[in-house]
Amino acid sequence: MHAPVGGLTQAEMNNAVAIIEAGQQLNLPSRAFVVAIATALQESHLHILANPNVPASLKLSNEGVGTDHDSVGLFQQRPSWGSTAQLMDPHQSARLFYAALVKVNGWQQMAVTVAAQTVQVSAFPDAYAKWQSLAEQIVKAVV
Question: Dihedral (C-alpha) 106, 110, 116, 122: value to the nearest 10 degrees?
Fold first, then answer.
């Protein structure tokens, strides 16, 4: 177990570690972990969020409830990303995020916020930037 950094709770840190582990299993570079963690910090502050608009999510292990359309999990992914069970699982939702990230041509050279936005297509495209330094701190503590 990794001790929390940057003011995170142990649960948040555990979810960050799950994101990193999923990326390591895919043999991705640590830059991918930074993009993924910055994204999850913005989308859910590293909480596995259920959503009343996705009733099945309320029956799965969660750390709170969000109400953004039909988005669930750490990355606030919508049903088109995968099954509710996949989206509510930290490792599986991270793998889905990484699968989309690696399809982005040149993501390795993009600013973290641009890479995250290209995957997420958020209504707030610049919102990921504020999380980059914390994401880097988390990755440094784990990798």
Answer: -100
